[in-house]
Amino acid sequence: MRYDGAAEVLHDITLTLKSGSFYFLTGPVGAGKTSLLRLLSLSHPAYRGTIRVFGRDFALVGREEAARLRQRIGVVFQDFRLLEHLSAFDNVALPLRIAGADDERVAASVPEMLRWLGLDAVMEAPPRQLSMGERQLVCIARAVVTRPALLLADEPTSNVDPERAERLMHLFVQLHGLGTSVVLSTHSQDLPRRHPFPGLRLEAGRLVAAA
Question: What percent of the chain has pLDDT over 90?
């Protein structure tokens, strides 16, 4: 993988994620963790090699099928990517509406998720009125509200306190128990210690450990 003709960020990575698995993705700053998650989320093409998602070679699918594949993936971005003209409620509701969910499901699922994350008071607030931690939680709610087949979370606990981080881990583990495959990037040494899931470690763009 490379950006705008620059040197490759990831090198010779062969990785298979089993359905229903949970992995912590670790490595130093600049190791390529975010780049790997971008490949897995189908938001960036591979410079060379093959990406197969849900049994399909992504390079060979058409635009409509690519959109359907992306709908099965929930992504927690480091930069949040919330739509500034929408409220917290509507940001979280967006993937449900794109997937064709009716108003009844949206009205039931979105408030429940926001309340569970302690965002009752800011449901109608736009992102600019939210703290960094609240934006992080809205981003997480948006990623998980559809119960995706694959959840990719890039440093999802970086802007929240330890108590809320543990609550988020409980949410991710619950989703995993329901069959969602999870890849969670983290610099925390505490989370993998308290939640002994297998690990993937990147160093200088290479996968050096896969437990």
Answer: 68
Residue 49 C-beta-side C-alpha neighbours within 13 Å: 17
| Domain span at 187 | 1-72+148-211
φ and ψ of 63, to 5 deg: -65, -40
Whether 43 and 75 have beta carbons less than 8 Å apart is answered as yes
* pLDDT confidence tier of residue 209, bands split at 50, 70 and 90: confident
CB burial of 100-120 (b: ≥16 within 10 Å; e: otherwise) equals ebeeeebeebbbebbeebebe
Answer with the one of 129, 147, 165 that is the final residue of a domain: 147
23 forms beta bridges with 183
Q: Please write the tens of the pLDDT for every residue from 36-65.
A: 999 999 987 777 788 898 989 998 889 999
Residue whose C-alpha is closest to residue 33's, from 68, 2, 9, 14: 9
DSSP state of 128: G
The edge-to-edge listing of strands for the beta sheet with 73-76 is 73-76, 150-154, 181-185, 22-26, 199-203, 206-210
Number of compact structural domains in the chain: 2
